[in-house]
Task: inverse folding
């Protein structure tokens, strides 16, 4: 009887190991927005793209001090994915200081060859954010976050990001606007995914060890 039970444990361990090897790890791709079309201006912010669900990623744009992302009239472009559409965007939210502006949307979407003259073509372009409070005067923000959902979408697919920025922090844009482009840093697995798989294997190993002792 003990041999049969032990065999089941070994089989379960083997199946879990195979599952762990085959299952794609949740990942995150980060971009440092270090290049701009403005003379003497660089390192304006970062873009983090993380797997947040099946066929879904979360995009978080965080501006460095002295810069903001342009909202009405602004553009955000991506290279890498192949299946983005206008309806891919959800949860578009802008923040500056203690103020948060939710329920926003992009007025325009273009796919195909969308040329940013300084940096070449980007496959998908979301532009002209709308939904800000009327009369608020808000035209830029210190951070922006939203989800993108499309068939097979993963953070590891993104190879390029470009967006329209302002040369001042806060909601009033600044004396100048420009475009910034980033290249991805090394893709890293999400810690939670590794911990989950590791905990499962360790727990199963402990069960097998106790069976041997018994």
Result:
């Amino acid at each position: 009887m003990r041999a049969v039970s032990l065999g089941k444990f070994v089989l379960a361990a083997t199946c879990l190991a195979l599952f762990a090897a085959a299952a794609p790890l949740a990942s995150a791709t980060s971009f440092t927005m270090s290049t701009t079309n403005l003379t003497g201006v660089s390192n304006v912010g970062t873009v983090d793209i993380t797997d947040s669900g099946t066929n879904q990623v979360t995009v978080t744009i965080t501006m460095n001090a002295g810069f903001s992302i342009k909202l009405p009239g602004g553009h955000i472009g991506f290279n890498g994915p192949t299946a983005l559409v206008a309806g891919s965007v959800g949860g578009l939210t802008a923040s500056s200081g203690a103020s948060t502006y939710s329920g926003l949307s992009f007025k325009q979407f273009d796919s195909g060859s969308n040329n940013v003259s300084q940096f070449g073509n980007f496959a998908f372009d979301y532009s002209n954010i709308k939904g800000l409070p009327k009369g608020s005067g808000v035209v830029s923000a210190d951070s922006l976050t939203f989800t993108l959902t499309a068939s097979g979408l993963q953070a590891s697919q993104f190879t390029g990001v470009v967006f329209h920025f302002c040369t001042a922090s806060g909601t009033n844009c600044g004396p100048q606007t420009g475009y910034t482009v980033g290249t991805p840093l090394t893709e890293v697995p999400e810690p939670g995914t590794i911990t989950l798989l590791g905990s499962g294997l360790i727990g199963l190993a402990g069960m097998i060890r106790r069976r041997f002792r018994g």
